[in-house]
Design goal:
This protein is α+β, with helices and mostly antiparallel strands. It has one domain: Protein Transport Mog1p, Chain A (3-Layer(aba) Sandwich). It contains 3 helices and 9 strands; from the N terminus they run αβββββαββββα. A 7-stranded antiparallel sheet has the order 3-4-5-9-8-7-6, with helices on one face. A two-stranded antiparallel ribbon has the order 1-2. A hairpin with a 3-residue loop joins strand 6 and strand 7.
């Protein structure tokens, strides 16, 4: 992994879990297929509409139509997908098919967000495109190795500040579908906005 030259090396830990979203692939059926519980499962895990992270200091709220996979959840990492692809009886609300990962790191050594180029360099990704920079967030499109063969290497990434923590996000979707279009940036922005609002309200 290429390290940043302008940021503390410890900041690399912020993104180390974003590649973990391929861990659900066990039978070659693709990541989205494996999010659906087996038909013979007596008590399948219930997808979550929100989750407390970082010892309760952050409330993660998915974008509309997405749910959190409870089996992926830790204090600093969560995997999300459209609710109906995870076996929820209802949900989806027209949301784009995709896989969204979120990780958190305590914002101690470096209060500044890395730039889109910093993130792309750290992961040996293609130069960032369509970068959107706000006071507390950076969203951009890039190209890199997809978690599974059924997802496009073109994807969206973001970093944001939330309640003293740095939030890293990555959204992958099938080739040519909505999640990898400009709509993908809106999915990430909605995740950041909803998570920030719910966390600040707690």
């Amino acid at each position: 992994m290429t390290t940043w030259t302008s940021r503390p090396l410890a900041a690399l830990g912020l993104f180390s879990l974003l590649g973990a979203c391929d861990a659900s692939q066990t039978d070659g059926g693709g990541l989205l297929a494996n999010l659906v519980p087996p038909q013979d499962a007596a008590l399948p895990p219930v997808p979550l509409s929100q989750a407390l992270m970082m010892r309760g200091q952050v409330t993660l709220v998915p974008p509309r139509g997405y749910c959190i996979d409870p089996e992926s959840l830790s204090q600093s990492f969560a995997l999300m997908a459209r609710c109906d692809t995870m076996g929820a009886a209802t949900g989806g609300n027209g949301a784009p098919i995709g896989v969204l990962t979120v990780s958190f790191a305590r914002n101690v050594l470096n209060p500044d967000l890395p730039s889109a180029q910093d993130v792309a360099t750290a992961f040996a990704l293609a130069p960032p495109e369509n970068s959107r920079t706000a006071q507390d967030s950076v969203i951009f499109k890039t190209t890199g190795t997809a978690p599974t063969a059924d997802l496009s290497p073109d994807h969206w990434r973001a970093v944001a500040k939330v309640a003293g923590f740095t939030m890293g996000l990555a959204l992958f979707g099938p080739e040519g579908r909505r999640a990898v279009s400009a709509e993908g940036a809106e999915v990430l922005q909605e995740t950041i906005t909803r998570t920030t609002a719910r966390t600040n309200a707690a």
